[in-house]
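R.M. (postdoc): so does anyone remember the format we settled on? I'll just put the structure tokens first.
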């Protein structure tokens, strides 16, 4: 099958380029037509590879594309999940080539080329590998599992409507394992399988002081300035050990054993290398934990954006009426995102001084997820990576979130194996996002081998 992949490189890339050209930005209603077009593109693609019952399901938000290939009622069933929506490409001026005009260029980490476009890695490129892997298996008459595809268009905005879809189609989606490529590996020499994701709780706060912007000379010194106050309130959300200062925030966090921590840190990136990769001269985070632990097994709180007052050219002397911030918290297993949102909401309002009104809004969220590294499905994935990359992949917990993964477990009772192939340096959500061609082709190969092993192993 490897030779077939090599022979069809150009065809695969031409198809991926076509997919990457459609600006399926889920957050911006201006792009709804592009979302629809992408759903149709995937529908066609799934039909072309020989899937059955390919259908676009409308939801209260963006559509879900479903397809299946049932070969035998007694064979194990694999559900493939991916997302066709992408993050907004802003800031546009930092892109070296336009985000929806894919180009292939070499980089130091991708000497055989990488494809640059929004969604190249997250997640169109990674999702498309699954379509190609299943195509290969069907063509070679080597598909030994039933396959179901669920490809959605709202992952980047919280998958709000997918839960309903899964609930409505619970029986249709029944599977033995879910596989997703929407995470990453350490490097081409050190592949990894993700066994954990963090949860997320995303809030927005607004402080209102005086009923209009005021002349800062006439009023300065007499009123609470909402921006000054917001900064003080935000600063108080961490203590000097960089622990989150919200009462109850850590109550449900399960401490990980010393042995497990030691084991995970074996695969950590050297501290200096980490700092160099993002041009900082010191790492900062919760006291008592390593960088790797801080970004995977510990909960955090970060301001994603803050605004208010005058931010245009030059100077304007003004005390603003309002100040805003978007604040997110990454969560770990056993923390409940709705509970944490509520804790934040109550605490943040409680620390507001007199003279300002505080509004807190919950945007979206999801719980954390962990999957064991000893299951049959994990073993099948492990063997597949080993065959393609030449080394045994290590298990790692990631800091990012895919809210639907714990939902799949809750509603379908089905575990997920996170078979990602991206690199941290692929700049997902950033300007110049890219995905290595080797990662793409090796991903297709690894996925096709996963099916081979999974069909042979008894299911747990
Ligand atoms: N694919 C990412 C999540 C990810 C990336 C997990 C790399 C692990 C490693 C996904 O598309 C994403 O960006 N998720 C969002 C959450 C969503 C609700 C906006 C995130 O993690 O911020
Ligand atoms: Mn993604
Ligand atoms: Mn993403």
């Amino acid at each position: 099958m490897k030779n077939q992949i090599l022979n069809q490189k150009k065809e695969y890339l031409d198809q991926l380029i076509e997919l990457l050209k459609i600006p399926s930005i889920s957050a911006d209603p201006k792009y709804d037509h592009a979302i629809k077009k992408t759903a149709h593109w995937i529908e066609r693609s799934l039909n072309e590879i020989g899937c059955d019952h390919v259908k676009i399901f409308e939801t209260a938000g963006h559509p879900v594309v479903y397809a299946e290939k049932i070969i035998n009622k007694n064979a194990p069933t694999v559900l493939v999940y991916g997302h066709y929506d992408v993050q907004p490409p802003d800031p546009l001026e930092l892109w070296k080539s336009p985000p929806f005009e894919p180009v292939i260029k070499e980089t130091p980490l991708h000497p055989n080329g990488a494809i640059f476009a929004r969604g190249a890695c997250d997640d169109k490129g990674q999702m498309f590998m699954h379509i190609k892997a299943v195509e290969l298996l069907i063509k070679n008459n080597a598909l030994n599992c039933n396959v179901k595809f669920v490809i959605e268009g709202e992952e980047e905005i919280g998958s709000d409507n997918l839960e309903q879809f899964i609930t409505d189609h619970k029986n249709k989606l029944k599977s033995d394992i879910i596989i997703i490529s929407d995470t990453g590996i350490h490097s081409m020499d050190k592949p990894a399988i993700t066994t954990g994701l963090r949860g997320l709780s995303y809030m927005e706060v607004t402080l209102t002081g005086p009923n209009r912007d005021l002349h800062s000379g006439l009023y300065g010194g007499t009123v609470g300035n909402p921006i000054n106050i917001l900064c003080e309130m935000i600063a108080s959300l961490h203590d000097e050990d960089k622990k989150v200062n919200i009462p109850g925030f850590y109550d449900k966090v399960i401490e990980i054993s010393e042995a497990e921590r030691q084991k995970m840190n074996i695969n950590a990136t050297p501290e200096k290398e980490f700092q160099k990769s993002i041009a900082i001269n010191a790492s900062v985070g919760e006291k008592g934990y390593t960088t790797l632990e801080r970004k995977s097994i510990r909960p955090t709180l970060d301001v994603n954006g803050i605004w208010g007052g005058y931010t245009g050219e030059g100077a304007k002397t003004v005390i603003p009426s309002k100040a805003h911030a978007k604040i997110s918290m990454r969560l770990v297993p056993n923390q409940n995102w709705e509970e944490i949102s509520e804790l934040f909401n109550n605490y943040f309002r409680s620390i507001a001084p007199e003279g300002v009104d505080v509004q807190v809004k919950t945007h979206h969220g999801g719980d954390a997820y962990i999957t064991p590294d000893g299951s049959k499905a994990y073993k099948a994935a492990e063997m597949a990576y080993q065959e393609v990359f030449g080394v045994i992949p290590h298990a790692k917990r990631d800091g990012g979130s895919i809210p639907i993964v714990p939902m799949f477990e809750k509603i379908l009772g089905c575990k997920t194996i996170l078979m990602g192939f991206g690199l941290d340096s692929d700049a997902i959500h950033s300007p110049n996002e890219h995905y290595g061609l080797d990662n793409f082709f090796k991903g297709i190969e690894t996925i096709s081998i996963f099916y081979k092993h999974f069909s042979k192993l008894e299911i747990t």
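R.M.: ...and that's the designed sequence above, right after the tokens. Also worth knowing: DSSP finds 13 helices and 18 strands in the chain. The longest helix spans residues 437-456.
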